[in-house]
Amino acid sequence: MGIEVGGIFGLIVLVLNVFAIIKVVQSGAGTGSKVLWVVIILLLPLLGLLLWYLAGPKG
A single Pfam family, by name (predicted)? Predict the structure, then answer.
């Protein structure tokens, strides 16, 4: 009744989410923006990762 992520695909998503969170924390964005992006990535793993890649803080 929901989208389940498991196996090798789940592991890949986990690694990419950790990478995205590290990049967000290392970015030059403000603290509030960083917290918001980390929360989005944690609450919406697939969608949050895609949104971060397209519109997240750069640098």
Answer: PLDc_N
User: Which tens digit of pLDDT belongs to each residue from 4-59?
Assistant: 667 788 888 899 999 999 999 998 888 999 999 999 999 998 898 899 889 877 76
Interatomic CA distance for residues 52 and 37, integer angstroms: 7
For residue 13, being part of any structural domain is answered with no
In a domain, 21, yes or no: no
Tell me which residue range forms the domain holding 59: 28-59
Question: Number of folded domains in the chain?
Answer: 1
Locate tokens 């609450």: which residue?
43
